[in-house]
Amino acid sequence: MSGGVSETTMEAAGDRGGTRAEAIHRDIVRAILEQRLGPGTKLGEDEVGAIYGVSRTIVRAALQSLAHEGIVVIEKNRGAFVAHPSVKEAAEVFQARRLIEPAITELAARVCDGAGAAMLRAHLAEEKAAERDGDDRAAIRLSGEFHVVLARIAGHRVYENFLRELVARSSLIILLYRRSRSQCCKTDHHTALVEAIVAGRGAEAVAMMTNHLDEIERDLELVDTAVPVKPLSELLGG
Amino acid sequence: MSGGVSETTMEAAGDRGGTRAEAIHRDIVRAILEQRLGPGTKLGEDEVGAIYGVSRTIVRAALQSLAHEGIVVIEKNRGAFVAHPSVKEAAEVFQARRLIEPAITELAARVCDGAGAAMLRAHLAEEKAAERDGDDRAAIRLSGEFHVVLARIAGHRVYENFLRELVARSSLIILLYRRSRSQCCKTDHHTALVEAIVAGRGAEAVAMMTNHLDEIERDLELVDTAVPVKPLSELLGG
DNA sequence: TGGCCCAAAATTGTATACAAACAAGACCGG
DNA sequence: CCGGTCTTGTTTGTATACAATTTTGGGCCA
Lengths: 238, 238
Known about the structure:
homodimer; Arc Repressor Mutant, subunit A; Four Helix Bundle (Hemerythrin (Met), subunit A); 2 domains; disordered N terminus; DNA-binding
């Protein structure tokens, strides 16, 4: 973990991007989306505080926020751990995604204007660049975030917030339960989705999204696994 | 505000029901569901701390949790306020309910066993008793909570947590935007829903739920209003 | 070698002190 | 009287101190 990068995180916060706790929250979510932080990882308050250069007060606020999203589990008197979703929870998360993402997709296809199209295409370009550059972690994160960008395009804050949590939790689930080593979302699926959405072909986009989610879920083997644990200072702030 | 009642809240926490912050969070949600706490009400840390007999640390944790659910808005350097949902947010909340509650209802109808039926009937009995006794506040709260009990019966934690937030936010929305003074959910609708769910008639229950939600939403007039403000100590711990 | 016990170290839970920022009231001038 | 400025009081943001709990390591015994 390079101290310079975590200072960048803090500067972003000073930049009216939100409080320090929110910045740490975002950075930890980023680490999870990039699959650097795995299920069961202990997030000690002093350790996290040392990494980001803040007191435990700020760390506790960040951890509470993460716990509220189901991404971290806080056990009384024992500390905070990256969540280890059960098979049941995994099924529930994907079921919720199969419920909400077609609705988001349909909305996005209906309201998508030039700015929305530009945002989607820019995101797609970022995904492709990460893939081309062999930056697996960024590619994985961007592929998850693509879904959240759709919700932002749809302009529906309630759905967006819910989906943001579902996507972060999906990242943990995929890390635990996936069969293949491949990136879970295929860029060409995202490409086709973008084209359908931008063209306002809602029904087609919805069908594609449904298939896309089914495919992600089919790649999961919903049985229990164990994960190795790495030192926190290698994983955060990255 | 009777000190005895808030001590009861604290004892419930000591009873492995969760931390003190969680108990305060629950009590504030309860006050909102009972429409004792209206949109825009300031929740000062010291004031809330005095009411519940805790330090600001615990209050801040409770307020953060409420803010995460969209029930309270924390403005930097200005304090925490009960949320005042906009017309757009109101529409989004009800749209999300129209998406998720039929799914919950269908699930509940599929899995409802004898214990589930007993839970639903007990809840319904409580609603009817509150109505009969003229306890409007309890009746309003129980009618909102009925929807969350359905989610619990469905045994789907992701849906349940999401719906819990939506129902609390709905309470604020209804207080702000309703046309009529009547209780927003009619008990006979809940009665009919329970019978269909318990009998496993999923499609019928789903249709009823959809109509029920449409009816609630039709009773809202989605234009901006202002609300009078009452002293906090009259409203919390109730 | 494994299990148990105990003391010390580490960590979490929480209150409180201090700094920073905002709100309210007083004062002054036009 | 009204508006602007300044001062004071209040509240929020955050670190730190202290209490409570858990974890770890060492010693002892079968």
